[in-house]
Amino acid sequence: MRHSFVVPTVLAGAVFLSACAQKNADDTVERAFQDVNVVDETNLTDVMLTVADPNEAVAYFTRSVGEDPDRLEFQRGLAVSLVRAKRYTEAAAAYTKVIKMEGATQSDTVDYADALIRSGDWAKAEKILDTVPPTFETFKRYRLEAMVADSNKEWTKSDSFYETAVGLTTRPAGIMNNWGYSKLTRGDYKAAERLFGDAIRQDPSLFTAKNNLVLARAAQRNYALPVVPMDQTERAQLLHTMALSAVKQGDVETGKTLLRDAIETHPQHFEAAVRALNALDNSNG
């Protein structure tokens, strides 16, 4: 009789071991799928932050935040996507949550200041930047500091921040252009001209710097086009800019001549230049 109990016990043990083995196998598979999901999710997050349509990215991260509001990468992704979508007020509000979360960095604080500047809240942006320790030295931080100093007309600080920012990037054309525009607004046309020229040498395709260079030269009543790389359309546009600057300074006949040159130079019909020339002719008539 004692032996009659052995087989069921052994069978029960075998079933138990089999169940344990199956559970372990299931757990392993589940963990594997979780790992795959994390990788896929990370890749999708990267895609949404870079190449996806900004509004699609906003929708994706809004859903993700709704499902997991305590996850920093989702809250940060939403804020970044709102900036990309040019929804700056919403982005600034999103960053107020990001910077309070565990794991948030000084970069998040700088990005918050950037969103505030884009939304027009310069005073608050300045206060936020003041909370960033001086040991945190990045290109973006000093670019924003320079812009804030410009807005306050603190020119010495502005120049110092621009100089620091230029030294912290391998692609300084954009910041040189900004610095040049700062000099232009102060009336320091020679310094502006030099900085715009430096920007163009760094990036010959930067049309904004070419246009600003023409403005700086025209402000000195130098109406000769600078020797910089330009195609025919750009040449016509720069002549148009120079013409309007000449008219603004009272050199109307020079402006009209430049407008005619712009119209003749442009490979297509240059409507803006034609309208400006007609307006000048009619006002003199």
From TrEMBL:
<feature type="signal peptide">
    <location>
        <begin position="1"/>
        <end position="21"/>
    </location>
</feature>
<keyword id="KW-0732">Signal</keyword>
<dbReference type="Pfam" id="PF13174">
    <property type="entry name" value="TPR_6"/>
</dbReference>
<feature type="repeat" description="TPR">
    <location>
        <begin position="173"/>
        <end position="206"/>
    </location>
</feature>
<protein>
    <recommendedName>
        <fullName>Beta-barrel assembly-enhancing protease</fullName>
    </recommendedName>
</protein>
<dbReference type="InterPro" id="IPR011990">
    <property type="entry name" value="TPR-like_helical_dom_sf"/>
</dbReference>
<dbReference type="InterPro" id="IPR019734">
    <property type="entry name" value="TPR_rpt"/>
</dbReference>
<keyword id="KW-0802">TPR repeat</keyword>
<dbReference type="Pfam" id="PF14559">
    <property type="entry name" value="TPR_19"/>
</dbReference>
<dbReference type="Pfam" id="PF13432">
    <property type="entry name" value="TPR_16"/>
</dbReference>
